[in-house]
Fold this protein.
Amino acid sequence: MQLFRTVIDLQKFVRTAKKAGKTIGLVPTMGALHEGHASLIKAAAQENDLVIVSDFVNPTQFGPSEDFDAYPRRLAADEKVAEAAGADVLFAPAPSEMYPHKDMTWVEVTGNLTKVLCGRTRPIHFRGVATVCTKLFHLSQADRAYFGLKDAQQTEVLRRMVEDLFIPIQLRIMPIVRESDGLAKSSRNVYLSPKERSAAVILSRSLAHAKESFAAGERDPQKLVDQVTAEIRTEPLSQIDYVELYGLPGLTEVKAPISQRVLLAVAVKFGSTRLIDNVVLEVE
Ligand code: AMP
């Protein structure tokens, strides 16, 4: 596996690969790689000749009071995880490589897609995600890009961006990888104290219970939201940011009775750590 720190080095690699007719899979990440990221890299390695993993804590997707400075950065460990999972290139640029100009071009998906769920408390987040992903899609010239369903709103936003801008790339969305007790793997889990770590299991547990209720025939969106909210509230260390349900694709409003695929998503703080999780409910 090769480590590239500059845009020029990545572009040279991509030019050669494309001339040789190789297909390229891209896995965008912010590093602190775990098994969730590894699952994306493995899928990319299966479906493409070459895999480029980006490892970049993207400053433009963090709000002023968010955890950009504290976000874990562990390039040496990431190199091992990426290589073991089948990456050919790890692209770890400095912010000045990705954002060379102060006055810059933004890519912004407008409307409800970026205003609901995480968009409500993170108003600039998805503009940062869309902008950095556009840059990475162009730099990598990837045939396919791999994202986790853990960030379900992000995948919906990027799907719209790719469609609107006619970007010739296939988005591949992979299932959520979890710890053995159900907690979704996340680079932010390292912030949790032992007590918060135990408490955080309430997210996956409450979503699993909602899935059971749905399977048993519950079709009222508000009742499913209320059930999850009530269960999370039994955990004293939890502070709910949102529990919401939207239609897929497109995060549309859903009325009772539910008659389409829906996303039931939560964001909850434990201490100062904000975690997200979700479940997709499919009507048979
Ligand atoms: P991040 O480094 O957190 O920005 O995540 C990079 C990519 O990995 C995103 O597409 C995430 O959705 C995905 N990802 C993060 N955690 C998981 C997980 N537990 N399971 C599957 N994919 C994940």
The first strand starts at residue 2 and ends at 4.
